[in-house]
Specification:
This protein folds into 2 domains: 91 residues, Immunoglobulins (Immunoglobulin-like), CATH 2.60.40.10; 375 residues, TolB, C-terminal domain (Neuraminidase, 6 Propeller), CATH 2.120.10. The chain has 498 residues and is mostly beta strands. Strand 27 and strand 28 form a beta hairpin. The strands form 8 sheets. Strands 3, 4, 6, 7, 8 and 34 form a 6-stranded antiparallel sheet that branches. It has a 5-stranded antiparallel sheet with strand order 14-17-18-19-20, with no helix packed on it. It contains 1 helix and 34 strands.
Length: 498
């Protein structure tokens, strides 16, 4: 049925009246309070407290004065009082911002400004050296997270220019390592400094470098006594004291997709070793433990359960630290991937039966070129291409285990588990100055560059896959493992407009 001219006029007048009411209501909302507070006197974040005369959603746009990059917070809920978190700020810097009341027609304030505090003294350091590679574009739009295990312990995130953009501190414990969880929080392993137990045996013929730096005893080396989950605002969501439970985690910590905690734990076995003064010896080793966020142990696996000690020719030499697992991750099928540096191998372990499915490396189950053998490796995981990736410390020379090769590299393998062949996909050999005999990590970034931790020399490096170093972070401490932090981690807090 066709509308008459009068009906059309009435309809249009009604729409205009409705639009005018919305426009008036939206523009009649007043901002009654704006307060800026720096939580914990941080130089890197500000809390913006905003009160309105009527309930309404809003957002905040903020940017470094003179910079084209703008951050916009998500549109908030409809309410009168709002608390907006401004994160990833730079210290000693002027920022401009405006408050935008969200409606059919946005209503925004004039441009306002604030000054962040100066950086704390511990943050001031020559993180980037001009005489070392420092192409900040190699980082892409991400950050690098690393941890300080001394006092006070801290977690920091650094950008491509060497500026700390986020940090969290603990007054009582050092931070051994930290990792991002599937729910975009940070899981940290904490421990007292200088409480590690390790010993240097007398040097013998044909012993590798690794045998000089192995942990021993219950706490071992890089042993953690507490774990905590921290959100991106720096709030501790929960904290569990492992020491009270008689548990020691070390070397690695992960949260699985179903939000369980997975780590390597210290385990022992009583055994009568031949030619020792005691009838029963305590052998120290490792296993995998699964825990919930309340600290309840859900499952655990011990290497001692699948290890034939009677056939082990190394057991006396490594009785205090037989396996030295230094990383644990899940394969795509949910089974464990363990770095076993004493054996210079990666093991895949059935997470249900506990049986070792296969071993990769020298003397393992895969056919592979001897040039791709790895030595005292770290940081095993499945990269975004579906390949098994690791950091090869190069601690032993392939031809003579009494000598040190002194070349570290990143390796990635495509594994054919039917033909049992391992084909190298990435063989990224680093310059000799980037060698590290212990610790370290390798991660394939979204831009196909590789982020590597050169722990012993206090460096974090980004290289291309030909081994050319493009960017180097100069740390004033030994970083155990640096982790890449993508910009998408902050999607709940802001979006970035270039």
């Amino acid at each position: 049925m066709k509308k008459t001219g009068l009906a059309i006029v009435i309809t249009c007048l009604g729409l205009l009246t409705c639009f005018g009411f919305v426009y008036y209501s939206n523009h009649n909302i007043r901002i009654t309070k704006v307060e800026l507070v720096s939580p914990e006197n941080s130089a890197l974040k500000e809390d913006l407290s905003i009160s309105l005369s009527e309930a309404s959603p809003l957002k905040v746009e903020y940017w470094k004065k003179g910079d084209d990059v703008k951050y916009t917070t998500p549109i908030s809920e409809v309410k009168v009082d709002h608390l907006v978190h401004l994160l990833l700020l730079e210290p000693g810097t002027t920022y401009e911002y405006r408050i935008v009341i969200d409606g059919w027609i946005d209503q925004s304030t004039d441009v306002l400004s604030f000054q962040t505090r100066e950086a704390s003294s511990w943050m001031i350091h020559e993180w980037i050296k001009e005489d070392k590679p420092h192409d900040k574009t190699a980082m892409g739009d991400g950050l690098v997270m690393l941890c300080y295990r001394g006092y006070p312990g801290y977690i920091s995130m650094v950008d491509g220019e060497g500026t700390i953009r986020w940090y969290w501190q603990d007054k009582n414990l050092g931070v051994r390592l930290a990792t991002i969880t599937p729910r975009n929080t940070i899981l940290a392993l904490l421990a007292p400094a200088r409480k590690d137990e390790f010993k240097k045996p007398e040097k013998g013929d044909n012993k590798g470098v690794a045998s000089y730096y192995l942990r021993t005893g219950k706490i071992g080396f890089v042993g953690g006594t507490e774990i905590a989950e921290i959100d991106l605002e720096g709030n501790v969501l929960w904290r569990t004291n492992l020491e009270e439970k008689g548990i020691v985690f070390h070397h690695d910590l992960r949260m699985t997709d179903d939000h369980k905690i997975m780590s390597i734990y210290r385990d022992y076995k009583l055994y009568d070793l031949p030619d020792t003064p005691t009838k029963i010896d305590t052998l120290w080793g490792d296993g995998v433990m699964i825990m919930d966020t309340l600290g309840n142990v859900l499952d655990k696996w011990s290497a001692w359960n699948v290890w034939d000690i009677s056939k082990d020719i190394k057991i006396k030499e490594y009785a205090g630290d037989r396996f030295h697992f230094n990383s644990v991750n899940l394969d795509t099928d949910g089974n464990y991937l363990l770095s076993t540096p004493i054996e210079n191998q990666v093991w895949k372990v059935d997470s249900k039966s506990g049986e070792i499915i296969w071993k990769l490396g020298k003397g393992g189950d895969f056919e592979m070129d001897s040039s791709s053998y790895f030595y005292f490796q770290h940081s095993v995981y499945i990269n975004r291409n579906g390949d098994l990736m690791l950091f090869d410390n190069g601690d032993f020379s392939p031809n003579d285990t009494s000598k040190v090769n002194k070349v570290s590299r990143s390796l990635a393998f495509k594994l054919d588990t039917e033909q049992m062949k391992a084909e190298v996909q990435i063989d990224n050999i680093l310059p000799k100055e980037y060698y590290t005999s212990r610790m370290g990590s390798a991660f394939l970034m979204p831009n196909d560059y590789i982020l590597q931790t050169i722990s012993k020399t206090g460096k974090v490096a980004i290289s291309n896959q030909n081994g050319e170093v493009l960017w180097t972070l100069n740390s004033h401490f030994i970083p155990y493992r640096a982790e890449y932090i993508p910009a998408t981690l902050w999607s709940d807090y802001f979006k970035i407009d270039q």
